[in-house]
């Protein structure tokens, strides 16, 4: 830190790292459309649908996080009526 200050460089914190998101905005729209079309779809089925549409292949946990970020309802249809 002192070396940077003596050299007259910027002491502001560097921008945080992290990897780029695995799913793009269009992938997320496709995921939202899939869930809207098939409300009872499982994560594995979502993974298969996205791969069949020619989108990225992502893991099940990545899909789970994406669905949580989309804030879609978790309530599924009840067949016991």
Describe the structure.
The protein is mainly alpha-helical and 81 residues long. It has a domain of 49 residues. Helix content is 49%, strand content 0%. The model has no long low-confidence stretch (mean pLDDT 83).
Question: Which structural class is indicated by helix and strand composition?
Answer: mainly alpha
* DSSP strand tally: 0
Q: Enumerate how many helices there are, as a single number.
A: 4
Beta-strand level of the residues, as a percent range?
under 5%
Helical coverage, percent range: 40-55%
Compressed to H and E, one letter per element, the order equals: HHHH
Are there runs of 5+ residues with pLDDT below 50, and where? none
Mean pLDDT: 83
> Mind summarizing the main beta sheet?
none
| Separation of the first and last Cα atoms | 67 Å
Q: Characterize the overall form.
A: elongated
Mind telling me the C-alpha Rg?
A: 20 Å
Query: Which assembly state applies to the chains in this document?
Result: single chain
């Amino acid at each position: 830190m002192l070396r940077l200050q003596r050299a007259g460089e910027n002491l502001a914190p560097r921008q945080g790292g992290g990897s780029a998101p695995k799913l793009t905005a269009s992938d997320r729209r496709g995921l939202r459309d899939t869930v809207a079309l098939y409300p009872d779809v499982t994560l594995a089925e979502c993974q298969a649908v996205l791969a069949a549409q020619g989108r990225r292949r992502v893991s099940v946990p990545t899909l789970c996080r994406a669905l949580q970020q989309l804030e879609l309802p978790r309530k599924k249809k009840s067949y016991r009526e």
